[in-house]
Specification:
- The protein is mainly beta.
- The protein is 3% helix and 46% strand.
- It is built from one helix and 14 strands, in the order βββββββββαβββββ.
- The chain has one helix at 105-110; strands at residues 4-7, 9-10, 19-28, 34-42, 47-48, 67-74, 80-85, 91-98, 101-102, 115-121, 124-131, 143-153, 160-165, 183-185.
- The strands form two sheets. Strands 2, 5, 6, 7, 8, 9, 12, 13 and 14 form a nine-stranded antiparallel β-sheet that branches. A five-stranded antiparallel β-sheet has the order 1-3-4-11-10, with no helix packed on it.
- Strand 10 (115-121) and strand 11 form a beta hairpin.
- The radius of gyration is 16 Å and the shape is globular.
- The model has no long low-confidence stretch (mean pLDDT 92).
Length: 188
């Protein structure tokens, strides 16, 4: 299956004039995992983008800085998973039992870490993430995907954030809102 590209939309309450476009591509890997690519184009010098680390690690609160995210759920379950990918190479995984209600802590810790690669140029940041099939929510129902990003900007000198998603279902940015999981991957 070739990768399909979709554009993320900036939440109207968080404009980001330095960003020209933000897109994400997704495809199912042959063994059942996911391959994702995020492409951010714009005036990168006006954005706060973490430098890539030589030894990335599991992090926490990555969404406080520029961070690419994916939310995954099975259509027949309330539970879902969240993955955060920093341009530094750091990553985080979270398992939720229901809307913003954490699942068992051990579940998040057992999820296989993603494999990340980052490319940054003067006008673009590209982050590629690969998730093993074991990192996906269990089950046979369609996989619901929410692709999102938080981008930190220097436009006002105060670290302002813009929030990007395939769909913003509420008045305020809320990536956990199930109506934002709009990319549907059917089961075979």
């Amino acid at each position: 299956m070739p990768a399909e590209e979709r554009f993320l939309n900036c939440h109207p309450r968080t404009p980001a004039p330095a960003i020209q476009r933000l897109s994400a591509s997704l495809k199912i890997r042959p063994e059942g995992g996911l391959w994702l690519r995020y492409q951010l184009a714009g005036d990168i010098a006006r954005l706060r983008i973490a430098a890539t680390k030589a030894h990335p690690e599991r992090g926490d609160r990555l969404w406080e800085q520029t961070c690419f995210e994916v939310f995954l759920a099975r259509a027949d379950q309330a539970a879902y998973r969240e993955f955060n990918f920093s341009p530094s190479g750091d990553w985080a995984t979270y398992a939720f039992a229901d809307y913003r209600r954490p699942g068992e802590p051990q579940e998040s810790e057992r999820l296989a870490p993603p494999r990340l690669s980052v490319l940054q140029t003067a006008g673009r940041v590209e982050l590629t993430a690969e998730l093993d099939a074991s990192a996906l929510p269990p089950g046979n129902a369609a996989l619901l995907v929410g692709l999102t990003a938080v981008v930190e900007s220097d436009d006002l000198g105060d670290g302002r954030h813009s929030y990007w998603a395939l769909h913003h279902p509420s008045e305020r940015p809320d990536f956990h809102h199930r109506a934002g999981f709009t990319w549907v991957l059917p089961t075979d």
